[in-house]
Amino acid sequence: MSLRHFLQLNDLSREELDHVFARTGWIKERFKRYERYWPLQDRTLVMIFEKASTRTRLSFEAGMQQLGGTAIYLNTRDSQLGRGEPVEDAAEVISRMSDLVMIRTYEQAIIERFAAHSRVPVINGLTNEYHPCQILADIYTFIEHRGPIQGRTVAWIGDSNNVCNTWLQAAEVFGFKVHVSTPPGYEVEPERAGLHGTAHFEEFADPMDAARGADLVTTDVWTSMGFEAENEQRLKAFADWQVDGDMMKAARPDALFMHCLPAHRGEEVAAEVIDGPHSVVWDEAENRLHVQKALMEFLLLGRVNA
Ligand code: CP
Ligand code: NVA
User: Fold this and answer.
1) Ligand 1: residue whose CA is nearest its atom 6
2) How do residues 113-152 score in pLDDT, each as one tens digit?
3) What superfamily in CATH does domain 134-284 come from?
4) What span, in angstroms and rounded, lies between the C-alpha atoms of 174 and 168?
5) What are φ and ψ of residue 303, in 5° steps?
6) For the ranges 51-65, 75-89, 111-125, 218-232, which has the lowest average pLDDT?
7) How far is the CA of 224 from the centre of ligand 2 (A)?
8) Separation between Cα atoms, residue 261 and residue 243, nearest integer Å
9) Distance in angstroms (rounded) separating the CA atoms of residues 124 and 225
10) Which backbone phi and psi does 191 adopt, to 5 degrees?
11) Distance of alpha carbon 73 from its chain centroid, rounded?
């Protein structure tokens, strides 16, 4: 199979993503039955973290082990990456010693430069611009609970950040609509989001209007990693963009609530919502493990058919 990377959600076609979801179900079912599935025996994943993580690290490390392989964790504090070694040189070296690389970093350009010099597939574990593994898990979770996402409406409330941009890309790929409501000054930048147009999203000044009739309401922290200096200003700007019980009432009665986590109860989401009956956040977090196992299988072995 030719070298493939997963730097943005739309690096895989709709048909390939559907394949990954089918494999996710197959892998998850066997994992739940404690059936050994070791297709990646003797393969090594290198995980490079320039930002903090709980779920991404754990799901990739556990996932690789569960597929029979090994995962190695590197961060910028203890490696030469934090001391100015060029990304291109790091990519040349790391990709000669491993089979697969996952990177969490700042600008998307960094991961693109790494991938351009890598001999092995590179996976985006979050950049300032995108979080494609998260949205794989989110869409898989939606499908598990409610069936196909095509034709549905997703309400995004809050910051037009990496997770929002990836939802917008996903809407183009899967054919659904995103209702976005951000405070003034924090609007979606279609070019930065890597969109082909604006047909799949609509912006609303009032978050209640964005939530109205939605099949899924989702949000994320007001201040993403790397933007901490703006925290105080953002707390003020986003104060009216909290997903609360009233907002969930405006959505469809069977609407789901998702959050990539970590969450701040009382800021972007009220406790009654994230801990309430609409919320599927724990399934969403767990599915990171299962979808990423299917993604790693696809990138390393191509189309495996059960
Ligand atoms: N949702 C997510 O990526 O979580 P972590 O930052 O803990 O990896
Ligand atoms: N938007 C958040 C997501 C964390 C998983 C951030 O980038 O910090």
Assistant:
1) 53
2) 999 999 999 999 999 999 999 999 999 999 999 999 999 9
3) Aspartate/ornithine carbamoyltransferase (3.40.50.1370)
4) 10
5) -80, 105
6) 75-89
7) 5
8) 14
9) 15
10) -70, -45
11) 19
**Domain-by-domain residue ranges, the chain?**
9-131+288-301, 134-284
Q: Which ligand is nearest to the CA of 130?
A: 2
- 56 close to ligand 1 (CB < 6 Angstrom): yes
Compute the distance between CA of residue 133 and CA of residue 291 in angstroms, rounded to an integer: 8
* CATH superfamily, with its number, for domain 9-131+288-301: Aspartate/ornithine carbamoyltransferase (3.40.50.1370)
Q: How far apart are CA 11 and CA 6, in angstroms?
A: 6
Q: Report if pTM > 0.90.
A: yes
Of all atoms in ligand 2, which is nearest to the CA of residue 261? 5
- Residue 78: pLDDT band by 50, 70, 90 thresholds? confident
DSSP 215: S
| Owner of token pair 């059936």 | 35
Query: Residue with the nearest Cα to atom 1 of ligand 2?
Result: 224
Cα angle 299, 303, 305; round to 5? 135
Closest CA to 262 of 47, 50, 53: 53
8 A C-beta contact, residue 297 and residue 271: no
Tell me if 161 CB under 6 Å of ligand 2: yes
Mutate to test the pocket of ligand 2, among 51, 54, 105, 126 (most ligand atoms within 8 A of CB): 126
Residue 53 CA to ligand 1 centre (angstroms)? 5
Tokens of 162: 């990496």
216 forms beta bridges with 154, 256
pLDDT computed for residue 79 by the predictor: 87
